[in-house]
């Protein structure tokens, strides 16, 4: 039973998994990740067992790991050394999201906000951020406001050459700010700017909140911790912050595009409030872009652990007898439950990598101070796609971990499987940086704004250009199912855009307010529109990558199998809507789609184990008794079990006395 079969499954593959890994991730990225893992293995602070740490223990460990990472000196500015930064963050994300959060929130969220919204007067602060002389946090969310960021209630009032910060009520207290509870010395904080009695709207500021020598908070600021949380987030210092007449210098205003003169006049170079908002929205997308990768990593862990364990786990067989039992991976239902998430892990990675390239170009243009209609359009498109891709990828990720846990049977529930912890770790990805259903509305709002321009839509990333033509209904399947899937998505998205817009106009004519209209078009319409647009872009970008960038025939072939499964898996979820919208009639289209989906799962089977190897983190990072690359799941399980042999907890003495007492009473 313990003899591993994993190598037998590896030999079934038609490709070299190492070459696939290099093709998808890039050789340099693979090499840099390996270097990071080697550094981690050489440092005792990164070694761990399956013991559950307390909150204080987790935070101290993360602090010590962060110090070690800083000492490595891999990079200063994430945007000037993207390769090193991405390799480090991805490895840390797989190892422990708590550790990566400490790094990412400081450099990529706090640091990026200061850089993109600040000016020359913030240069010293940028240098201190890059040199890790300070610790940064990002404070947008409030007790009473998360999704509706425009209405946050913290105020920054110009008074005698300074800015006075206040939290006017309990709902205005800042919260969910990582790094804030204990470590942050500085924060980027969003507040309503009041100048001369007028509210100029939401602005970003950067202020010092603690003395870096004593770590005591500055006057007018109260900071605390938010208490216990599940999973790795126990180790993240999510804090709350209340202002009571805290005075900060005027230079605190992140003044790219706007400022306050010394005599108290508000000036801005933005042509409109919407232009200022669109630039800010694009800047805030950096967090959502990182969360897309969390969905990818969740699918990676789920498929790696569950598929490897499905080879080690043997249940039932064509004949009775233990010797006739077969690996559960042989069962088509097990394959159907797991292989789509394997394909999702690969496809989301390819999509996210392309998105990062586009976003990096966008951020560089923002930091160079460009102001143009084209950049404003770029910002909206980035915002639309990130607001759609974050929900799609995180829902898939959390879903995959739940399915993997169940597919691993009882042992999947063990802490050492890591699947339960990972489920807790990834659960908040569905709500932070915007609750998924809420931010999907931002995607549909931007798409609905294009309705009057159908036929002439031009966007920097070309994600909406397919809406310029009226797509045709289904006629027949071609030799390339992915092309057929994209055709179905084009029809679906176009139809949902038209019907959602038509429904909105109908509600407006009936006397509904714009607020009521926006809410009443969500169910079955706007939400589905956002998802369809996003999934079309994902599939389209992955197909272009395979066609244009993968020359090796064996790799190209296997990636087409992967994309084929991913695209059919996603489209099948829209089957009812496709029929309702008239894309197809009769049962033939749906039956053939499902038949192709089953065939796509079957075609992945011989490739599955090597596909897993191409995405799986090093065992040191994976840290799963069920998912180790040697396939010896039961040996690893028993190794952990034996650590608890013949335990004698303190309360056993009390149990013995209690039983003895009951025994004596029964004799009486």
Summary keywords:
Butyryl-CoA Dehydrogenase, subunit A, domain 2, 668 residues, six-stranded mixed sheet, 2 domains, Butyryl-CoA Dehydrogenase, subunit A, domain 3, 22 helices
Give a verbal description of the structure.
Pathway: Lipid metabolism; peroxisomal fatty acid beta-oxidation. One of its GO terms (biological process) is fatty acid beta-oxidation using acyl-CoA oxidase. Its cofactor is FAD. The structure is a single chain. This protein is of the alpha+beta class and 668 residues long. It has two domains: 135-280, Beta Barrel (Butyryl-CoA Dehydrogenase, subunit A, domain 2), CATH 2.40.110; 281-654, Butyryl-CoA Dehydrogenase, subunit A, domain 3, CATH 1.20.140. It is 55% helix and 9% strand. It is built from 22 helices and eleven strands. It has helices at residues 6-10, 17-25, 27-41, 55-72, 82-95, 97-117, 123-130, 273-312, 332-367, 373-407, 419-426, 436-448, 481-509, 514-520, 522-549, 553-572, 575-580, 588-604, 608-615, 619-622, 633-641, 651-667, and strands spanning 136-139, 155-159, 162-166, 174-177, 186-195, 198-208, 221-225, 239-243, 246-249, 258-260, 266-268. The strands form three sheets. Strands 1, 2, 3, 5, 6 and 9 form a six-stranded mixed β-sheet that branches. A three-stranded antiparallel β-sheet has the order 4-8-7, with no helix packed on it. A hairpin with a 2-residue loop joins β2 (155-159) and β3. α9 runs parallel beside α19. The protein starts with 5 loop residues before the first helix and ends with a helix.
């Amino acid at each position: 039973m313990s003899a591993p079969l994993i190598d037998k499954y590896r030999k079934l593959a038609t490709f070299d998994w190492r070459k696939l890994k290099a093709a998808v991730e890039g050789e340099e990225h693979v090499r840099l990740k390996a270097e990071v893992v080697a550094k981690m293995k050489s440092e005792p602070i990164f070694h761990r067992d399956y013991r559950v740490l307390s909150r204080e223990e987790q935070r101290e460990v993360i602090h010590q790991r962060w110090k070690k990472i800083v000492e490595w000196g891999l990079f200063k500015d994430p945007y000037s050394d993207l390769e090193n930064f991405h390799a480090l963050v991805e490895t840390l994300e797989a190892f422990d999201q708590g550790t990566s959060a400490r790094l990412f929130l400081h450099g990529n969220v706090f640091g990026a906000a200061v850089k993109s919204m600040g000016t020359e007067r913030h240069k010293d602060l940028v240098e201190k951020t890059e040199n890790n002389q300070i610790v940064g946090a990002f404070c947008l969310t409030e007790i009473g406001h998360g999704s509706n960021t425009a209405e946050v209630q913290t105020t920054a009032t110009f008074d005698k050459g300074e800015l006075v910060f206040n939290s006017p009520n309990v709902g205005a207290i800042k919260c969910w700010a990582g790094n804030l509870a204990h470590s942050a010395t500085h924060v980027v904080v969003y507040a309503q700017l009041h100048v001369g009695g007028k509210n100029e709207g939401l602005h970003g500021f950067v202020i010092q909140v603690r003395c870096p020598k004593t770590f005591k908070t500055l006057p007018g600021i109260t900071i605390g911790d938010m208490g216990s949380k599940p999973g790795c987030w126990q180790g993240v210092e999510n804090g709350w912050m209340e202002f009571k007449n805290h005075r900060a210098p005027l230079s605190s205003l992140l003044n790219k595009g706007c400022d306050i003169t010394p005599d108290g006049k508000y000036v801005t170079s933005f042509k409109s409030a919407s232009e200022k908002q669109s630039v800010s929205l694009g800047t805030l997308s950096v967090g959502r872009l990182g969360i897309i990768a969390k969905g990818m990593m969740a699918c990676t862990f789920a498929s790696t652990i569950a598929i490897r364990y499905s080879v080690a786990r043997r249940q039932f067989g064509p004949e009775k007898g233990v010797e006739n039992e077969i690996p559960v991976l042989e069962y088509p239902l097990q394959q159907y439950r797991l292989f789509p998430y394997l394909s999702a892990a690969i496809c989301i990675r390819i999509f996210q990598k392309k998105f990062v390239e586009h976003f990096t170009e966008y951020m560089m243009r923002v930091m160079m101070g460009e102001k143009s209609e084209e950049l404003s359009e770029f910002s909206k498109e980035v915002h639309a796609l990130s607001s759609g891709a974050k929900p799609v990828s995180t829902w898939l990720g959390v879903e995959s971990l739940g399915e993997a846990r169940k597919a691993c049977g009882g042992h999947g529930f063990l802490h050492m499987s890591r699947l339960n912890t990972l489920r807790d770790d990834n659960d908040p990805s569905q709500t932070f940086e915007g609750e998924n259903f809420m931010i999907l509305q931002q995607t549909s709002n931007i798409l609905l704004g294009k309705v009057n321009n159908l036929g002439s839509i031009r966007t920097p990333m070309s994600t909406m250009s397919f809406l310029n033509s009226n797509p045709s209904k289904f006629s027949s399947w071609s030799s390339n199912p992915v092309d057929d899937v994209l055709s179905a998505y084009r029809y679906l998205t176009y139809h949902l855009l038209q019907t959602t817009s038509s429904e909105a106009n109908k509600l407006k004519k009936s006397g509904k307010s714009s607020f009521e209209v926006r809410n009443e078009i969500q169910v079955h319409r706007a939400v589905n529109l956002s998802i369809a647009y996003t999934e079309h872009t994902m599939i389209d970008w992955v197909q272009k990558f395979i066609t244009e960038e993968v020359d090796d025939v064996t790799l190209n072939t296997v990636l087409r199998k992967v994309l084929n499964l991913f695209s059919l898996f996603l489209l099948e979820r829209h089957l009812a809507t496709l029929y309702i919208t008239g894309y197809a009639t009769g049962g033939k289209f749906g039956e053939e789609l499902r038949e192709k989906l089953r065939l796509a799962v079957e075609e992945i089977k011989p490739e599955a184990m090597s596909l897993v190897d191409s995405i799986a983190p090093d065992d040191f990072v994976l840290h799963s008794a069920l998912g180790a690359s040697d396939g010896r799941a039961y040996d690893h399980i028993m190794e952990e079990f034996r650590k608890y042999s013949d335990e004698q907890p303190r309360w056993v003495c009390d149990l013995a006395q209690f039983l003895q007492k009951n025994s004596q009473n029964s004799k009486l």
